[in-house]
């Protein structure tokens, strides 16, 4: 089935371990008949030989802006300046208003827009690089739509030009009701109809239930995500210290990498947790699946999030999850029904939630089973992408 709709996807980095949902979304939309071409600001986050076969297929067909070279950059800018000088200068003015990085965004926007013109693409959907797309829309005869994930976009909405980006878009997508509320808060009431809620999702067939561990020894806690202060991993280490002091046989496995790695390693040593914590580093989807299969709970101690896809993956596999009661997370985890929630920044509450799961196998089993039902009901990739496809059809055709 062909939708008759061709569009570009403009992404910050593709493929990327931290954002597997972008790859799933693009490929699912193609299955639904959309003709999608992808441009990425940066190349993949791993060498080509470290990508999965599916990621390699995507990398081969993706246009990478930062690797187009000086010649490609110069050609795009000269061609654009010659073809549309007024809008070129208008885009430069818009870029300079964004701050010190404006010139870089402008350079990337011209290359992205020139690529769209050469491929006769008139609409682009954007993840994580909205400023580049917003500038490109000032220069070229294109329309844009944006997925805002939060929370970074909502911390400084004026500096991020959130109101202006929503106004310039055919539509903007929030991935949670919380995200929608943050967009409504800063947007002119006349632009409220542009804001759509379309949840992310996972494929329940790919993330099938893993074997239940009735009496694990040690009890394995997984934490998956970028190693950054906003993810709150230091708070999880404090909770692990409390559990270890009680003599509990518990093992925390942290998957991911990032700027906070050295600090976390120092914290592990300072808390004498070397026997209780393993730093797994980056894991591709195959290795991450093995980690999920071996763990007994997934803990997410974040201070800010959208709706984390790692929660969806774990819940689909019937893994009981412990997360913080923040932003969009209560939209996926119903406390005491399909997971446990704890206040952010409270190591004692986090430890007690993990201990509760350790002490009660039947609770773990029940929460895990209900968690999968929650994913099937609200966060199924196929159903949610079909809804996004309907938004594209409605907005692009009428826009």
How would you describe what is shown here?
The protein is of the alpha/beta class. α5 crosses α6 (130-139). It starts with 5 loop residues before the first strand and ends with a helix. α11 (261-270) links the parallel β9 (250-255) and β10. It has helices spanning 20-31, 53-61, 69-83, 85-96, 102-118, 130-139, 152-155, 162-168, 177-186, 233-245, 261-270, 285-294, 309-316, 347-359, 361-378, 381-398; strands spanning 6-13, 35-42, 63-64, 123-127, 143-148, 171-174, 195-197, 219-224, 250-255, 277-281, 297-300, 321-324, 340-342. The radius of gyration is 22 Å and the shape is elongated. The chain has 2 domains: 6-201 and 380-398, Rossmann fold; 219-378, Glycogen Phosphorylase B (Rossmann fold, 3-Layer(aba) Sandwich). The protein contains 16 helices and 13 strands. The mean pLDDT is 96. It has a 7-stranded parallel sheet with strand order 3-2-1-4-5-6-7, sandwiched between helices.
């Amino acid at each position: 089935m062909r939708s008759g709709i061709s569009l570009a996807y403009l992404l910050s980095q593709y493929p990327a371990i931290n954002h597997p949902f972008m790859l799933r979304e693009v490929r699912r939309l193609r299955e639904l008949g959309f003709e999608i071409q992808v441009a990425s600001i940066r190349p993949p986050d791993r060498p080509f030989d470290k990508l999965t076969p599916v990621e390699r297929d995507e990398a081969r067909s993706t246009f990478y802006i930062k690797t187009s070279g000086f010649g490609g950059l110069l050609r795009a800018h000269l061609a654009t300046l010659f073809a549309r000088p007024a809008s070129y200068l208008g885009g430069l003015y818009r870029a300079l208003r964004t701050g010190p990085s404006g010139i870089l965004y402008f350079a990337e926007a011209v290359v992205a827009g020139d690529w769209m013109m050469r491929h006769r693409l008139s609409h682009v959907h954007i993840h994580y690089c909205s400023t580049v797309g917003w500038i490109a829309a000032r220069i070229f005869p294109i329309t844009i739509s944006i997925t805002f994930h939060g929370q970074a976009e909502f911390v400084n909405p004026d500096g991020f030009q959130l109101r202006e980006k929503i106004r310039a878009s055919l539509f903007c997508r929030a991935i949670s009701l919380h995200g929608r509320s943050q967009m409504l808060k800063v947007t002119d009431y006349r632009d409220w109809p542009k804001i759509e809620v379309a949840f992310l999702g996972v494929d329940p067939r790919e993330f099938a239930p893993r074997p239940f561990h009735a009496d694990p020894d040690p009890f394995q806690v997984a934490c998956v995500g970028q190693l950054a202060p906003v993810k709150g991993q230091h708070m999880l280490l404090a909770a692990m210290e409390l559990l270890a002091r009680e003599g509990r046989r518990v093992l925390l496995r942290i998957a991911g990498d990032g700027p906070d790695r050295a600090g976390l390693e120092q914290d592990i040593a300072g808390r004498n947790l070397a026997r209780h914590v393993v730093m797994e580093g980056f894991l591709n989807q195959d290795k991450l699946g093995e980690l999920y299969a071996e763990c007994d709970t997934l803990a997410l101690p974040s201070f800010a999030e959208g709706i984390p896809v790692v929660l969806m993956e774990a819940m689909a596999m019937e893994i009981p999850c412990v997360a913080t009661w923040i932003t969009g997370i209560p939209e996926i985890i119903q406390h005491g029904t399909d997971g446990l929630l704890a206040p952010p920044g409270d190591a004692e509450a986090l430890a007690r939630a993990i201990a509760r799961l350790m002490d009660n196998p039947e609770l773990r089993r029940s929460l895990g089973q209900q968690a999968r039902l929650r994913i099937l009901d609200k966060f199924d990739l196929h159903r949610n992408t079909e809804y996004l496809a309907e938004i594209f059809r409605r907005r692009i055709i009428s826009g």
